[in-house]
Specification:
Layout lengths: L1 H26 L11 E3 L4 E10 L1 H10 L3 E2 L5 H11 L7 E7 L34 E7 L4 E5 L4 E8 L16 E3 L4 E10 L1 H10 L3 E2 L5 H12 L14 E7 L8 E2 L5 H4 L13 H5 L3 E5 L4 E4 L5 E7 L12
Antiparallel strand pairs: 1-2, 2-7, 3-7, 4-5, 5-6, 8-9, 9-15, 10-15, 11-12, 11-13, 13-14
Amino acid sequence: MSTLISRSVVNMKVFIIVNLCLPYLLHGTDGRKFRNDYYYYPEAAGWLKLHEVPATWNNAWLKCFREGAVLASPETENLNNTMKLLSANLQNSFAIYTGIHATFSKGDYYTIEGTPLSKINVTWAPGEPDNFGDKENCLAMYHNGTLADVDCNGIFPFLCYKKKTKLITNACGTIDTDYALNVKTGSCYKFHRFPQNWTQAFAACSGEGGYLAIINSNVEASVIRELYVSNPDSVMPGSFEKSMAHIGVSDWGRRGLWLTIHGETLNAAGYDKWVNGYPSADTTANMNRPCGTVFRDGLLANTKCGMVRPFICEKTPDSLEDYEYYE
């Protein structure tokens, strides 16, 4: 009986140890971070983030780019093994995208970083590559580490990778030096001079770890005006409307109901000052202008979401305790 009890105790200890350690095995054992949604893996010599929501190859690389990383490629055996470990956790997908592609020139495969396929130790899945239908220009990795060429318009989960480098993290908790902390509001802001439509702007801010700016007070409106002063028309190349920028306001598909992207009415959020004549009283026009913008003077207007404009991202500073600076 005592032997059975001893074994039971040992088994319980093993169970506890495994379950306590498993999150660290899966998420990385090193405390270094370059942003708070990535984990550092020493064996991969960098940070990785698993995106479980599948996307096309183009959207996958763009998501990684906006996060300051690249679409991961199995360039080394250690990185290959780490990618296999992380992708094995996926329940509803048999493969993940890699950053290896031939989208610039048919058959000429390179990683996002420019490494040719010929310099990567590749194990192909049975029957691959086959360039089925002459439409397969991207490479996906099965959970066993083998590769296959696939249609870039297919949707797969993916991993973003940031190679270990010297990081200089600012007060906003990001390596993006365009974000600056404003002491008046306690938020960080970035003015994007290159225009996007409202949806693209939302995605860009999200990818950077922030969100389309939400004006919560007259003080914050003054901060927006100051951002505009620092970004005159002359520093925004191209021909597009530069007097207003996309911000985090939308009608959420309900005509005349104006909310922040965080679900608050503008009045509850603390700022509800519109340019004279806005929002449009014409319900037809209003339906076609469901996205919010801000003029240089800090007043609000509604616009067509498809219009390309500059935009302003806002970010809450992350705790600097999560970051290390090193070579």
